[in-house]
């Protein structure tokens, strides 16, 4: 009787359960400790190994639909870069990424760590450059390779890149210490194929959970020097830079939802096996 | 009421409209869905125009014909003009009998993309991966037990999965056994992808719930009810 009712359960009860397992921990702000995985530690160690004034490119290959996972990653990484006094160039490979670049910079540079009496010590053109969006994914990377300031010409404020202190001595990919691509699509592949393969530019990535499985082979082969995986990657990096934020909050709530999903998968399979036994062993 | 408050209410309304689909399809969901698709396309077209066609196509043409910012016309940049004209041929399909002209930009695109992409893609996504599957055996660290086991799992998994996709031999006997092993490795891969996709989808839900609870319901909805009582 119970078995039959469970097998015919309206799936909307499952949606309601998922909603409750997300809403209640969000309201009560439950947090769990976050152990750091080796792939995230590699990104952190790579940035730690860089020297003051080294040049890092943060490439935004995602839009608002993926910001829940990637924004905590990019905020934590940018915080780390500013803390290490690295020069950072931010570029958008997606048309809907530029507002996210602005939002990220504003949030990190205005935090207490980088402000005195509400005035940020992090200055555009000096500590970072926002070059905005360019059309063409792979073509952008190909054209950047030989002359970065010549390709972008100006930053989003209209200032010539060649006149900016943050771009001093930066010409080609050979001058770039690290590129980190934050991606919800194919942009990591473009960086590997058109940036790393022909020019050897050091590359790391922060990606959404949907595509992270495709990225691990590049990590094992050394083509990626580190990899941040979805919401977990953001939470781990926040833990590493000791700046708890949205990532750590979300990954704790995520644990509740994962408990539920695992429970439902086990229950679903158990019901399936029980039904098959009732029907006489099935055909396999 | 500030613009920010209005924005929060609109965002909350549209979020609830979209999630209402989980109960059943309804006009609110359809409205939000069509609005989202239309706005995304509109944003993308306008942004791409002003960051692509305008600076790389229109402005150089203006510079060569009437001049820009009060400056006199400059010599034409053929490196800009030629791809611009080739690109315009895409619109030939709108004229009856001239549709064949679109083959020119298409053939250029296919040729250029293949010429650039094939060698680099082979190098980075095939040869490097083959190298990374075999090369670690030559390292000193691979002579220890667990690194050797790990490397062997990767090597056996790769060969077994490739065997599954090799269709020129019937999958019977030893080939069938290796092929079935390949299916197991593929299933592990799909399971990993499924788990990560669950993480992705639930994170999107968490972010919207955070917004609804922390940015909309608590300050605005509860605030609305508390205001007459002198609270909030």
Strand order of the largest sheet of chain A: 5-2-1-6-7-8
Number of helices of chain A: 11
Count of beta strands of chain A: 8
The major pleated sheet of chain B works out as: none
- CATH top level assignment of the largest domain in chain A: Alpha Beta
Distance between the termini of chain B: 15 Å
What oligomeric state best describes the polypeptide chains here?
heterodimer
Helix content of chain B: over 70%
Query: What is the general shape of chain A?
Result: elongated
Secondary-structure element order of chain A, as H and E? Answer: HHHEHEHEEEHHEHEHEHH
Radius of gyration of chain A: 22 Å
List key phrases describing it.
heterodimer; A: 284 residues; alpha/beta; 2 domains; 11 helices; 8 strands; elongated; B: 232 residues; mainly alpha; 75% helix
Question: Please, could you describe this protein's structure?
Answer:
The complex is a heterodimer of chains A (284) and B (232). Chain A contains eleven helices and eight strands. With 284 residues, chain A is of the alpha/beta class. Chain A folds into two domains: 2-28 and 253-278; 38-243, Rossmann fold (3-Layer(aba) Sandwich). In chain A, the strands form two sheets. A six-stranded parallel β-sheet of chain A has the order 5-2-1-6-7-8, sandwiched between helices. Chain B is an all-alpha fold and 232 residues long. Chain B is built from six helices and no strands. In chain B, helix 1 crosses helix 2, helix 1 (3-19) packs across helix 6 (173-226) and helix 5 (145-164) crosses helix 6 (173-226). Chain B is flat, with a radius of gyration of 29 Å.
């Amino acid at each position: 009787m119970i078995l039959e009712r469970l097998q015919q359960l309206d799936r909307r009860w499952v949606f309601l359960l998922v909603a409750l397992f997300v809403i209640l921990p969000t309201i009560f702000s439950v947090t769990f400790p976050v152990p750091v995985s080796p792939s995230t530690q590699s990104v952190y160690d790579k940035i730690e190994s860089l020297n003051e004034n080294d040049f890092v490119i943060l490439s935004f290959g995602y839009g608002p639909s993926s910001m829940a996972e990637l924004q905590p990653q990019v905020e934590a990484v940018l915080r780390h870069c500013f803390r290490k006094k690295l020069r950072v160039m931010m570029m958008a490979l997606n048309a809907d990424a530029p507002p996210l670049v602005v939002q990220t910079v504003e949030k990190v540079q205005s935090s207490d760590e980088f402000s005195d009496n509400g005035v940020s010590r992090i200055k555009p053109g000096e500590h970072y450059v926002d070059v905005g969006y360019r059309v063409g994914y792979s073509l952008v990377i190909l054209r950047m390779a030989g002359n970065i300031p010549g390709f972008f010409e100006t930053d989003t404020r209209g200032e010539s890149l060649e006149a900016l202190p943050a771009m001093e001595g930066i010409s080609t990919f050979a001058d770039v210490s690290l590129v980190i691509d934050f991606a919800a699509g194919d942009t990591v592949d473009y960086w590997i194929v058109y940036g790393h393969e022909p020019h050897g530019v050091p590359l790391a990535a922060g990606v959404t959970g949907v595509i992270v499985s495709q990225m691990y082979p590049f990590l094992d082969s050394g083509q990626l020097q580190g990899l941040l995986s979805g919401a977990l990657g953001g939470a781990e990096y926040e833990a590493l830079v000791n700046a708890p934020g949205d990532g750590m909050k979300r990954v704790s709530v995520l644990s509740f939802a994962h408990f539920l999903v695992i429970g439902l998968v086990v229950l679903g399979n158990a019901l399936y096996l029980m039904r098959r036994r009732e029907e006489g062993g099935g055909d396999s | 009421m500030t613009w920010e408050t209005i924005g929060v209410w609109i965002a909350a309304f549209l979020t609830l409209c979209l999630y209402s689909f989980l109960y059943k399809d309804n006009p609110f969901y359809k409205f939000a869905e069509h609005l989202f698709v239309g706005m995304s396309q509109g944003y993308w077209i306008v942004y791409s125009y002003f960051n692509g066609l305008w600076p790389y196509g229109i402005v150089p043409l203006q510079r060569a014909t009437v001049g820009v910012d009060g400056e006199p016309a400059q010599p034409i940049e053929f490196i800009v003009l030629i791809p611009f004209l080739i690109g315009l041929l895409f619109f030939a399909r709108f004229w009856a009998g001239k549709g064949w002209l679109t083959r020119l930009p298409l053939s250029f695109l296919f040729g250029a993309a293949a010429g650039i992409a094939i060698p680099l893609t082979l190098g980075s996504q095939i040869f490097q991966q083959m190298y990374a599957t075999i090369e670690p055996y030559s390292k000193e660290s691979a002579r220890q037990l667990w690194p050797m086991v790990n490397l062997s799992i990767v090597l056996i998994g790769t060969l077994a999965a490739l065997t599954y996709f090799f269709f020129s031999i019937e999958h019977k006997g030893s080939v069938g056994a290796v092929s079935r092993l390949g299916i197991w490795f593929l299933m592990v891969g799909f399971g990993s992808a499924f788990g990560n996709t669950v993480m992705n989808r639930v994170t999107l839900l968490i972010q919207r719930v955070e917004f609804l609870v922390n940015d909309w319901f608590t300050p605005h909805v509860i605030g609305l009810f508390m205001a007459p009582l002198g609270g909030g």
